[in-house]
Amino acid sequence: MHGEPVLERAFRVLGAFTEAGEGLALHTLAARAGLPKSTTSRIAAQLTDVGALERLDNGDFVVGLQLLEIASLAPRGHGLRAAALPFMQDLHRVTGQHILLAVREGDEAVLVERLSARGAAAVKYRVGGRLPLIGTGIGIALLAHAPGRIRMEALAGADDAACVRRLLATVRTDGVCAVTVPNPLRSGPTAMSTVAAPILNRRGDALGALSLVAPDEGGPRTAAVTALRRASLAISRAAGP
C-alpha cells in the first residue's frame, strides 16, 4: 500500500460499496477498502467535496449522484442500453421475470440494466454490479465470444470445465444457452433458471449479453430460448456495426 497512487486508493474506497443505497460508517469503509482509518477519512472527505460521495446526518457515507451522472455517459453501457431497452421491455412484459443486460469488462460481467417484475423471485443482481463469467448464464454468453486468453483463464478456474466447454459451444453454434444455478438468497426458490444470449456486432464480437432469470421449474425452456435469441438478434441490428 506504501506509495500507492491516491487515485487507486480513492477507487478502493468507492469499491467498498456493494449494495444499492448502502450507507457505510467510516470504520466499515476503511475495513472494506483495506486502508487506515485516517487515510480513508481524508479520501472520503475529498470524494464528498467533489460529489462522488455524500454524507448522511448519522455520519455514514453513501455513493453520490455525481458518480451516477458520470457513469451514465459510459458509451459501452449507455449506447447498448438504449438499443436494448425496447426489446428488454417487451420480454419483461411477456415473461414477468428478470431481464438482464451486461457487458464484459476483463474477466467479469458488469450489469448495465435490469428490468424486474414486482412478483418476480428475489435475486441479488444490481445495475453496476459485477458477475463472474462462469456460474451465470449471462457470463457464459459473454465468455463464449471473449478473447482466447480470457476463456482459458476462466476454464482453468472452473469446477467442471467440460460442462462449461459444452455451454460455450452451444452459445457459439445456437446463439443462446440455458443454465440452472443455485439461488444465493435464502428466501425464494432454491434454484434459478437462466437463458442467455450474446449480442454481437457484424464482425462477431460481443457487444454484451441478454438474459432472462426465473425460478427453475424443471420444464422445457423452448419458448424462453426462442424469445431470447430473437431479442438478441434484434438488439444486434439496432446497436449498429
From TrEMBL:
It comes from the Bacteria. InterPro entries: GAF-like_dom_sf (IPR029016), HTH_MetabolicPath_Reg (IPR050707), Tscrpt_reg_IclR_C (IPR014757), Tscrpt_reg_IclR_N (IPR005471), WH-like_DNA-bd_sf (IPR036388), WH_DNA-bd_sf (IPR036390). One of its GO terms (biological process) is negative regulation of DNA-templated transcription. The keyword Transcription applies. Keywords: DNA-binding, Transcription, Transcription regulation. Residues 4-65 form the HTH iclR-type domain. One of its GO terms (molecular function) is DNA binding. Residues 66-241 form the IclR-ED domain. This is Transcriptional regulator, IclR family. It comes from Streptomyces lividans 1326.
